[in-house]
Write a structure and sequence with these properties.
By secondary structure, the protein is an alpha/beta fold. It has a domain of 259 residues: Glycosidases (TIM Barrel, Alpha-Beta Barrel). Helix content is 44%, strand content 16%. The radius of gyration is 22 Å and the shape is globular.
Length: 381
Amino acid sequence: MTGNIADGSNGNEAVDMYTRYKEDIKMMKNLGFKAYRFSISWPRILPGGKICLGVNQEGIDFYNDLIDTLIAYEIKPFATLFHWDLPFPLEQEYQGFLSDKIVDDFRDFAELCFWKFGDRVKYWTTLNEPWTYTVFGYVDRCFPPGKRQHTSSGSDSASATDPVLDTTRALLSTLPWASAQEILGEVSERAFRETKRNFIVHKGASSNFITQIYDTIGGSDQSTSKSAQSGSSGQSKLDPAKEAYIVAKNLLLAHAAAVESYKKKFQKHQKGKIGITLVTHWFEPFDSKYENKRAAERALDFMLGWFLEPVLCGEYPESMMQYASKNIAKFSKKESELLKSNKIDFLGLNYYTANYAKHDPNPRHDEGYYKDQKIEFLGIQ
């Protein structure tokens, strides 16, 4: 995100696996890898975010060859369906995971992947670290979509279709094989902003693999996306304190929808497994006081339990229902049943560090996720 990296660097050019995957996989084999976990990029497969807007066959071909190459080297493919790369058109149309419309679109994307790759991929992860996507994107706002624009008037000057990040940086960040300077030599930043258009990747057509621009939503994008978040005045109705909880709920429902589809339509014949990968820190009480012991338990609930308990039981942790009762996005009975009736076959867990937790009755935070916890987090005693 613009301005968030001290030296101004970005991910436009990274390890370039898109063009070097064969040599990468050969090195994996030499290192003794038995399995490899990778993500399938939703916008690479469905540039418009929806099947009705077209499937990018070159994206399908890339993953087919990646999977076949892994298997040829006796490396089991573990595929993740969502590792935070939301198709930009869905952010424009209905604000991505802030809308429950995302659930059906994610289900469609997942089913397409099961159809195309499930004969060889036997381990599926629906979401990677949904906590990170939710908190970094909608609370800390250091990950996309970052700072959200809330309008105080009914004018069209800041509509819901306006990019929530710097437009050019956000779009170019998905293109690791071409530099921003090279691309902007062909299409100006002003053109991005005025047309609200995005790039389709087309391998082999030019040195940058970029040949065309497409209308993200077409002529109906502004009216559609405004209706997702606005009343008749055009003013935003979203409460910033509730955004993270809404996103988390829709992530969980999208997960459940994908699991349901896999188990009902594919698992019997493909004989694979499906699960989710979560993340947590460990939390130690700051001292032996009862209130701080409870704070440590509550911190784990607000990080790991927020996603794990709904996946297993269809409900949020009791502490979240108590402390975040004003803001949390509750499940309906039908939604709760969808979650708990579609059990995961495995759980992935990423763990990085630990913190001390101390009860704080008056946290110095804005209304929402951090303030709801009533916890002060410390690195040292």
